[in-house]
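User: tokens in, sequence out, please.
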């Protein structure tokens, strides 16, 4: 598909008209919700979605409800034309790019909240964030009504929240987690990496190495408490200014790790600030 010919729809009605047409032709539909500022990580989601369904729709919506009062909503990078070219190159069939009025019309009064899995980690560090995520994802899935939706494992807590949300609300969609896309030094790809200065960029790559070391220590028999404390100290030693968390959590519901064995049952989660950039990552054990 030509980069200049990726169809773009901006209303729920247009989106549903196209999805209905695909279904009438006997085709299945996958969705990849994004906030734009796309990179190879997002494109890997689109390519995975392409293997799961006949048609792929991507959405771009910078959701104000999931940004806190002191976070980066206004400066969050936006480049719809560039994003559309990238989506077309990855095999996307349709871009849904609604404005705020399509998601939160005048009089909008509903909030979706998922307890439990949303409470630790980013739930504690960014109050209200996951209510914003749950609400907008419920809206997007209801608007597009896809058979499959693909989300990245870099936001693993978000992925598990969405799995819980769709199960609890009987939303008939298969949620697929995509492996974390990384740069050569292991840094998880993120739109926010664009904020990193030249001096900060090599420091950022150390987060993945600290996580890998923590996973090895856990398997070797170190206690969860020691692994968490050592990981926090390592991030600070490498130059991260503030560590929001470095924690070992159970995969399914993000509850505390509990006793060993840990392989296949837990992940290690990290979030830390480097200059003006907040980075997150996680690693399976």
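Assistant: Sequence out:
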């Amino acid at each position: 598909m030509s980069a200049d010919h990726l169809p773009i729809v901006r209303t729920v009605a247009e989106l549903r008209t196209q999805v209905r047409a695909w279904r009438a032709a006997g085709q299945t539909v996958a969705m990849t919700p994004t906030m734009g500022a796309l990179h190879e990580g997002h494109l890997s989601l689109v390519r995975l979605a392409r293997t799961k369904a006949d048609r792929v729709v991507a959405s771009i919506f910078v959701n104000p409800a999931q940004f806190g009062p002191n976070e980066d909503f206004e400066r969050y990078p936006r480049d719809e034309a560039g994003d559309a070219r990238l989506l077309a190159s990855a095999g996307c069939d349709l871009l849904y790019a609604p404005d705020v009025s399509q998601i939160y019309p005048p009089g909008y009064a509903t909030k979706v909240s998922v307890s439990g899995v949303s409470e630790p980690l980013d739930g504690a560090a960014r109050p209200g964030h996951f209510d914003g995520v749950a609400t907008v994802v419920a809206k997007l899935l209801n608007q597009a009504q896809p058979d499959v939706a693909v989300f990245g494992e870099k936001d693993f807590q978000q992925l598990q929240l969405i799995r819980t949300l769709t199960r609890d609300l009987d939303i008939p969609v298969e949620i697929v987690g995509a492996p974390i896309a990384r740069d050569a030094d292991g840094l998880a790809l993120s739109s926010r990496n664009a904020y990193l200065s030249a001096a900060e960029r090599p420091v950022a790559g150390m987060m993945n190495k600290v996580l890998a070391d923590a996973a090895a220590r856990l398997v070797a028999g170190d206690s969860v408490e020691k692994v968490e404390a050592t990981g926090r100290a390592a991030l600070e030693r490498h130059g991260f200014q503030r560590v929001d968390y470095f924690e070992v959590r159970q995969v399914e519901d993000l509850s505390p790790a509990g006793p060993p064995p840990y392989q296949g049952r837990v992940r290690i989660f990290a979030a830390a600030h480097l200059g003006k950039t907040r980075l997150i990552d996680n690693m399976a054990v």
